Amino acid sequence: MLKIIIMTTMMIPTTLLLKPKILYQTTISYSFILTLMSLMLLKQNTHLKPLSNLYLSLDSVSAPLLSLSYWLLPLMVIASQHMMNSEPMQRQRTFLMTIMLLQTLISLTFTASNLTLMYIMFEATLIPTLIIITRWGQQSERLTAGTYFIMYTLTTSMPLLMAILFLNNMSNTPTPFFMTTETTNTWTNLILWLACLTAFLAKMPMYGLHLWLPKAHVEAPIAGSMVLAAILLKLGGYGMIRMMQILPVMKTDAFMPFIILSLWGAILANLTCLQQTDLKSLIAYSSISHMGLVIAAIMIQTPWSLAGAMALMIAHGFTSSMLFCLANITYERTHTRIMMLTRGFHNILPMMTIWWLSANLMNIAIPPSLNFTGELLILSSLFNWCPTTIIILGLSMLITATYSLHMFLTTQTSKSSLNLPTQPTHTREHLLLFLHITPLMLVSIKPELIL
């Protein structure tokens, strides 16, 4: 585990020192080696057990998310290649360096063994993300998006810091994840829970604390969108699962407002998707609805629901990242994200239609994909907890199917309104999309790797 983190850290000076001719080849191949190494961490046998020490530890919660972040690292570089080619060499190096720094901080967040270290790394991921959004974003609104992103995250993580200091004071040590704390006062328990949850709920984001997400996604470059949708939203879910191991046990009734808000929020976000004209904004709102299901599943704290939340987080990471890549491929050819202007692509790039269809079917959660596994587990555990939730969940899935098909039909069918000469698709783009969809199919064959 430590060798992977040291290797990732050494990527930062590597990107600055490589010759311009071999910059992308070396970075991408090096990242793929890291990806293969991270896949070994998924299989944790007893003789491989010394995966924990005083500062870093790895278990069945963090290993799948760590592998997901490493899998997306080379894909982010591949996706940004076209965009970066027009920039000066110095800026290309800075961009790659920022991505590698972000990856290092993310892997440290997932492998931190105590609360304090996790909090520091969780906050540190903000800085590279902010640089990527505000420096390489497309429009002038990117500064507003960056401000929203920082304000929401910092405001909500202040109570979390207070709670962590309180817990550390109680145990006289940086609180490790395997230690449960006990307080006698029920109010103290409640306030501790609220303080810890707000930071992670804003990061997920829960409906109501979600306003920074569509802005950040729309303004971010493709690598920024991919890392935001696939990994940074999962930090919220990961943090919530970790908090459940430490904080005093609470009755599920205390979380009732959050569960109701996240389930209704999923429906409202889905309805918002139906009226979006901007392609990236639509995909961003669909992330909010999927994360709503994950929040509800984590809150009821049953083994099934936690397994479902984990599966849906991984599946959503690949699916939304793939949708953003497709939106970017369209954007690079049309220079617009308005869905009505990007229609008729089936006649121009017929091969892309297959990728669009498969990505949208994954978004709907069609069997045998991993999305289906996750949604089925969440559905059954929520129904078991309260039968009424089936109405909300059924409605949510119906609207998801509607807007996914709407997105597919709007971008692919009817007559094209473009008169520009369009570039054919590159092998690089097909490889990028293939590497998104393969893990979803393969993991659904052996889901115990991540459950």
From TrEMBL:
The chain crosses the membrane at residues 21-42, 54-73, 94-112, 149-170, 190-213, 220-242, 282-300, 306-327, 348-370. It is found in: Mitochondrion membrane. It catalyses: a ubiquinone + NADH + 5 H(+)(in) = a ubiquinol + NAD(+) + 4 H(+)(out). One of its GO terms (molecular function) is ubiquinone binding. It is an enzyme of class 7 (translocase). The keyword Translocase applies. Residues 1-109 form the NADH:ubiquinone oxidoreductase chain 4 N-terminal domain. GO terms for cellular component: mitochondrial membrane. Residues 112-398 form the NADH:quinone oxidoreductase/Mrp antiporter transmembrane domain. One of its GO terms (biological process) is ATP synthesis coupled electron transport. Pfam families: Oxidored_q5_N, Proton_antipo_M. InterPro entries: NADH4_N (IPR000260), NADH_Q_OxRdtase_chainM/4 (IPR010227), NADH_UbQ_OxRdtase (IPR003918), ND/Mrp_TM (IPR001750). It is a multi-pass membrane protein. Keywords: Electron transport, Membrane, Mitochondrion, NAD, Respiratory chain, Translocase, Transmembrane, Transmembrane helix, Transport, Ubiquinone. Its EC number is 7.1.1.2. Belongs to the complex I subunit 4 family. Core subunit of the mitochondrial membrane respiratory chain NADH dehydrogenase (Complex I) that is believed to belong to the minimal assembly required for catalysis. Complex I functions in the transfer of electrons from NADH to the respiratory chain. The immediate electron acceptor for the enzyme is believed to be ubiquinone. Core subunit of the mitochondrial membrane respiratory chain NADH dehydrogenase (Complex I) which catalyzes electron transfer from NADH through the respiratory chain, using ubiquinone as an electron acceptor. Essential for the catalytic activity and assembly of complex I. This is NADH-ubiquinone oxidoreductase chain 4. It comes from Cylindrophis ruffus. The gene is ND4.
